Amino acid sequence: MQIKILIIMLLQTLIMPFIIGAIGARFYKKSSALFIILIAWVIAFFWINGQVLLYPKTPVEQLWVFLSVAVLITYFVKDKFYKTAMSLLYIVGLLIASWPVVQYELTFVFTLESGLFLAAGLFVIFVKSKNNRAAFTLSMACVLLGGVSALTSSLLMGQVIISLAAASGIYALLEIKHKFKVRQVPEKYLTVFSLMFFMLLYVVRVYVELNIEVTLSIMLAYIVSVFSFKNQSLVIAIIIYLLSLVIIVMDDSGSSYY
Predict the structure, then answer these.
(1) CA-to-CA distance for 84 and 45, rounded, in angstroms?
(2) What's the CA gap between 137 and 127, in Å, rounded?
(3) Which of 86, 94, 98, 135 has the highest CB neighbour count under 10 A?
(4) The predicted structure's pLDDT at residue 28
(5) How many Cβ atoms sit within 10 Å of the Cβ of residue 155?
(6) What is the average pLDDT score of the chain?
(7) Does residue 94 register a pLDDT over 80?
(8) Greatest mean pLDDT among 84-93, 108-117, 151-160
(9) What is the rounded distance in angstroms from the CA atom of residue 210 to the CA atom of residue 253?
């Protein structure tokens, strides 16, 4: 029985989203990558949650809506309005994710933490990055965050996050194949990837109760990996990620709403 459950989890989290992404990458142009990743991840997301969440109610359930709207903005909003549209979407996303907590109790610390996430998101929107490892950066960060979430006691969030890494995995492998010298996805996709990652990190921080030290270190590692052009910066990011894992393993007091 346990083996059957494990096989299903692997299919949901890794195999199925990766295969959909790989098929899409094989038969469609690079400009379709974001849509392919969205489809692969949303299918995995619904399967992991055990239902088609057309009317999402919780912050976790609303994540697929956030990514879907971000993809639509990327494909259909003109460049001169793009940054404004993405900024508004991110602000609304943070507000919606924060609302259950704000209704209960709004504290200075919570406001400060939310402000840090807002600043990080606006930074990736308005500061240009030219690195060629957008998909690899997302996949690496999601594998780490998913593992941290699972260890912190939320297997559901861990699966949701790692499935996004699997959905973008084929593009990450293509970036590795070309030694990060050839861009495998259009430049604007890095903004979408980054905002989605920060939304995932925010939900894990607030509802899985990931401690603030690990949260900030993961955020820092992600920004380092995105905005440093040299591949050596990946080593720094990986070290920070590994330190985060060590902290989580040593801290066995995790709790979760999911």
Answers:
(1) 28
(2) 17
(3) 135
(4) 84
(5) 17
(6) 87
(7) yes
(8) 84-93
(9) 10
The letter for the amino acid at 220 is L
Q: What percent of the chain has pLDDT over 70?
A: 95
What DSSP letter does each residue of 50-91 carry, written as one string?
A: TS--SS--STTTTHHHHHHHHHHHHHHS-HHHHHHHHHHHHH
Instruction: Kindly state the average pLDDT of the residues 16-34.
Output: 89
Length of the chain as a residue count: 258
pTM, whole model, 2 decimals? Answer: 0.92
| Measured CA distances, 193 to 69, 138, 140, 184 (Å) | 13, 6, 12, 14
CB atoms within 10 A of CB 220: 15
Neighbours of 75 (CB within 10 A): 12
Contacts of residue 100, defined as CB under 8 A and 6 or more positions apart, other chains included, come to 58, 59
Q: Nearest 5°: phi and psi at 217?
A: -70, -40
